[in-house]
Amino acid sequence: MKGQGTSMTATAIPETLPQAARPNVRRQRFPFGKVAAWIFMSLAVLLTLFPFYWMLRTALSNTRSLASHSSSLLPADFTFGAFERVFGLATKADAIAEGGSGASVNFWLYLKSSLIVATTTTVGQVFFCSLAAYAFARLSWPGRDKLFFAFITALMVPPIFTMLPNFILIKNLGLLNTYAGIVLPTLLMTPFSVFFLRQFFLGIPKEIEEAAMIDGAGRFRVFFTIIVPMSSAPIATLSMLTYIAAWNDYFWPLLVGKAESVRVLTVALGVFRSQTPQGSPDWAGLMAATLIAALPILVLYAVIGRRIINSIGFTGIK
Amino acid sequence: MTTTPAPARVRGRTRPTPGTATRPKSRRARNDLKAALIFVLPATIGFAVFYVWPALRGIYYSFTDFSVLSPETWVGTANYQALLKDDLVWNALKVTLEYVVINIGAQTVLALTIAVLMHRFTKSMAVRGALLLPYLVANVVVALTWFWMMDYQIGIVNQMLEWVGIDRVAFFGDSAWAIPTIAMVNVWRHVGYTALLIFAGLQTIPDQLYEAASLDGSGEVRSFFKITIPLLRPVLAMVLVITVTGSFQLFDTVAVTTAGGPINATRVIYYYIYDLAFTRFQFGYASAISVVLFAILAAVAFAQIKLLRAGESDLS
To answer: Does any CB of chain A come closer than 8 Å to the CB of residue B209?
Structure first.
């Protein structure tokens, strides 16, 4: 692909000069490179978006009709049955008639669990990490740089290394299959969040704080009335990144939260996929469920996507 | 917003100079200490309880025989000796490596191409937004969607292959295809994100360089190899360190699609560790393998940083 990509651009006239700036320098040939580049980019976008369309198309199909309509690009035998099934609204007979397993599934419940887990994690983690980041960026105290270095070192440790012992810890605390067990390990800090916010706090001019402190404000007042409002943009960005990561997490909730009462959407999807009633999975139901799992993130993205896109580049890690 | 220094460069920050030790300052310092303790306490508890302590326990467990159900017993280096002779460990390493090579190779080349094209042809927010979309969706969702699209009988991908006259492929069911398939599925999820990272790096290269080069008669290809690649090296190095480390941690996609099969064709190292610990209850042995994985990842990251001279820039 690389060779293709570069040869595509081979004949293109350099783009950095505006058209008007180079009148008749060279007779412009047919811009093969430019056309090829546009074709490549269009294909990339198409290939990126097609699976999302396919989720929707399948979710609006009748599972039993999928096989006979496998070459149709439109929903096979259009129905909202799949959504009714995964929300537990369809009767067992209806569900089986449309290719469902008939097993009771209730994605409202899983949606609720995902909301609780992602919201708690985000609020706790961002709050506690911003406190710590401030202490690392602005206060001077003995051992500060050593502790910060230790925090950063933890970025290098592969999650599975701490996950196995953490599982034992949560189990010994009697917190298996509780929200607390799912949330606790990332509630108080992740090295990334501390690092991320510290970078911003370092950039805030010291003079502003000093002025406030001469007026008699303590460190806490300064933090909550000056630093937090001034950093609302990075704090919002970090909150979104944390929310998305918590929402999408699969491994940890799989270990400690398999019980129905605390099962999050990602884990529920894995369970749903393994229910194969009549030999083949309930594809329409499965795609309806994946859409439900993806939808809140897609909505969030539609509203504040620009900020997420702009944040990429210096976050680098997530 | 894109100018914050890269992670590699933060450590050497100088402390604020103590300055003249006047009395108000030292009182400030004492107040600072009190405030700092309160500010940093919750995060430090989290760090100690859920990072440091488990890391130490993990190393300890790796020297024990531990079935979770009964207390662990010390066995010395038996787990490490066993893993050297365990064919499944070597298989897991081989399969993981195959995945990483295909995944990172394809992803980096595609992402670089997309990033350069975006940089030279379109800065459209809509294009960037669309390309980033897959990255925001859970691994599990991505895996299941492609699992369905690549179904042997009625998946749309096989249907399309048939339209152009190619034989159907059992993407997830054929042991030769399973790893490349999973690698490409995850390329689909990550390529837009990686492209945006590289794109951000490209924007730090001054446009005048390209203008000067083109006035001197350099074509796009020449500019790409003589300007873009050398100046992008630090960014590329960081991107590679991050994506390679992430790539080694493949789990979700395997867990919801092939579950390690067919036979052991997709039993990657993460999945093998999970399998040992949570279905076979060989917690000590699983810990030993994760210690080895940690060592491998650290070595790979270190080698990359050294080889790619990640900390230095040619742009000065």
So the answer is: no
